[in-house]
């Protein structure tokens, strides 16, 4: 596609931009239709849709990357498809097959190819797949109809001047309940995080660390990202809990820590009273890959890991390895990259 768009790729942020095409598929009478690309970015839905009243909706976030050779590639979209299916099952919504999910993403990227930022800018095309319960319904029960949509926006490099550490506070609120929806990517978890985020931001922190909702003794999430720490004896450690959103970035880093960096890597409890075990720490997710954690404010003092201003060497190596794979500069493990042709 040769269409030119007038975008300053080096100064893009993370804001909504209407791109040319999005994908919509409708579920009715027990099945999904074939789905199609459309130009209209407005949805017209019943005022009685379950997505509006009972939070029956879920979503995903993934990116398309432009390589040095000018190719476009998706990073592990099968994992997003699987997580979306889990979210759907948790909210009694019809599942989208992995094949349909990946096909929809590819169609949207191809149709909006001119919005995929050039290699070297660090910018990417962010894809937002989502499913919402729609149709006429007022009782608390699953919707009679559903929409599966995928839209995309070009987004800027998360770090304009290289990755830099930030500080976090401990949240006074929970984002999820012990056997609630924390492991599903559903809007309600994000609605619950807006207020604690606002409090942390007002207090001068980047975001807040959520502790486990049952005992408030263990680290779960860092804002909308997963936590990892590097122990003093060089282990990559990340918390395990049924109320954490299983981050695709986190599982990728677990693999890379073991297979590319030769570190021991484990998922286990991380106690907030035991921050001293780590010499480096970070938050990981699709948006930034890794945000190094300078410090965590806990019990009236800032616990600093590596440094408040410098990035630790293992954190940097993990970041360079994963982002190198995403942009096609480093060899990916089998099956991680899907080329958009
Ligand atoms: C609550 C939460 N945790 C973790 C993550 C990181 O997940 P991923 O690495 O799949 O982007 C996200 C972002 O999707 C998130 O919203």
From TrEMBL:
Gene Ontology MF: a single term: L-valine-2-oxoglutarate transaminase activity
Domain of life: Bacteria
N6-(pyridoxal phosphate)lysine PTM sites in chain numbering: 185
Protein name: Branched-chain-amino-acid aminotransferase
Gene3D superfamilies, per the entry: 3.30.470.10, D-amino Acid Aminotransferase, subunit A, domain 2
Record EC number: 2.6.1.42
SUPFAM superfamilies from the UniProt entry: D-aminoacid aminotransferase-like PLP-dependent enzymes (SSF56752)
Sorted UniProt keywords: Amino-acid biosynthesis, Aminotransferase, Branched-chain amino acid biosynthesis, Pyridoxal phosphate, Transferase
Catalysed reactions, semicolon-separated: L-leucine + 2-oxoglutarate = 4-methyl-2-oxopentanoate + L-glutamate; L-isoleucine + 2-oxoglutarate = (S)-3-methyl-2-oxopentanoate + L-glutamate; L-valine + 2-oxoglutarate = 3-methyl-2-oxobutanoate + L-glutamate
Pfam family of the protein (one): Aminotran_4
Cofactor(s) the protein needs: pyridoxal 5'-phosphate
Top-level EC class: transferase
InterPro entries assigned: Aminotrans_IV, Aminotrans_IV_CS, Aminotransferase-like, B_amino_transII, BCAT-like_C, BCAT-like_N, BCAT_family
Metabolic or biological pathway: Amino-acid biosynthesis; L-valine biosynthesis; L-valine from pyruvate: step 4/4; Amino-acid biosynthesis; L-leucine biosynthesis; L-leucine from 3-methyl-2-oxobutanoate: step 4/4; Amino-acid biosynthesis; L-isoleucine biosynthesis; L-isoleucine from 2-oxobutanoate: step 4/4
Similarity annotation: Belongs to the class-IV pyridoxal-phosphate-dependent aminotransferase family.
Protein species of origin: Clostridium manihotivorum
Protein biosynthesis among keywords: no
GO biological process, one term: L-leucine biosynthetic process
């Amino acid at each position: 596609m040769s269409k030119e768009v007038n975008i300053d790729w080096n100064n893009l942020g993370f804001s909504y931009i209407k791109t040319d095409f999005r994908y919509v598929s409708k579920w009715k009478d027990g099945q999904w239709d074939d789905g199609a690309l459309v130009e209209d970015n407005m949805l017209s839905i019943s005022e009685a849709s379950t997505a509006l009243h009972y939070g029956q909706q879920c979503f995903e976030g993934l990116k398309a990357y432009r390589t040095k050779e000018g190719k476009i590639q998706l990073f592990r979209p099968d994992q997003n498809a699987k997580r979306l299916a889990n979210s759907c099952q948790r909210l009694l919504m019809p599942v989208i097959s992995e094949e349909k999910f990946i096909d929809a993403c590819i169609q949207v990227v191809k149709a909006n190819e001119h919005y995929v930022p050039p290699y070297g800018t660090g910018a990417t095309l962010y894809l937002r797949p989502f499913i919402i319960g729609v149709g006429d319904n007022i009782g608390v029960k699953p919707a009679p109809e559903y929409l599966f949509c995928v839209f995309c926006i070009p987004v800027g490099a998360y770090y304009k001047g290289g990755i830099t550490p930030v500080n976090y506070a401990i949240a006074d609120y929970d984002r999820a309940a012990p056997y609630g929806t924390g492991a599903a990517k559903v809007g309600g978890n994000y609605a619950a995080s807006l207020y604690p985020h606002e409090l942390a931001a007002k207090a001068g922190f980047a975001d807040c660390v959520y502790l486990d909702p049952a005992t408030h003794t263990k680290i779960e999430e860092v804002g909308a990202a997963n936590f990892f720490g590097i122990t003093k004896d060089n282990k990559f450690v990340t918390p395990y809990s049924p109320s954490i959103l299983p981050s695709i970035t986190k599982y990728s880093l677990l693999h890379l820590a073991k297979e590319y960096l030769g570190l021991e890597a484990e998922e286990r409890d991380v106690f907030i009273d035991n921050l001293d075990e780590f010499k480096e720490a970070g938050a990981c997710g699709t948006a930034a890959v890794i945000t190094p954690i300078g410090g965590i404010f806990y019990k009236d003092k800032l616990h600093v890991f590596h440094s408040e201003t410098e990035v630790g060497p293992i954190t940097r190596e993990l970041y360079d390895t994963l982002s190198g794979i995403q942009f096609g500069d480093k060899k990916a493990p089998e099956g991680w990259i899907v080329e958009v042709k």
